[in-house]
Design a protein that fits this description.
It is found in: Cell membrane. This is Protein-export membrane protein SecG. Pfam families: SecG (PF03840). The protein is mostly helical. It has a domain at about 1-25 and about 50-75. The protein is about 70% helix and about 0% strand. It is built from 3 helices and no strands. It has helices spanning about 1-20, 30-35, 50-75. Helix 1 runs antiparallel to helix 3 (about 50-75). The longest helix has 28 residues, at about 50-75. The two termini are about 10 Å apart.
């Protein structure tokens, strides 16, 4: 059981890495300093489409990572 959970944890780590790298960037570039930061007008909108899907996917994978880590710690102590 320990090896199975460890394999799942490794797969989850790889999937988290991919999900984080696929998320769109939210940083302001140098152009926003020249334009007066008009991009902040739409900064408060809720994410939609691909961005929302990637945020939910990252959240779920993070919860799975946490649960698998706790399960592995419990199995290794018993």
């Amino acid at each position: 059981m320990y090896n199975f959970l460890l394999t799942l944890l490794i797969i989850d780590c790889i999937l988290i890495t991919i999900a984080v790298l696929m998320q769109p960037s939210k940083t302001n570039d140098a152009m926003s300093a020249l334009t007066g930061g008009a991009d902040d007008l739409f900064a408060k909108q809720k994410p939609r489409g691909f961005e929302a899907f990637m945020q939910r996917t990252t959240l779920v994978l993070g919860i799975i990572f946490f649960a698998l880590s706790l399960a592995l710690a419990w199995f290794s102590s018993h």
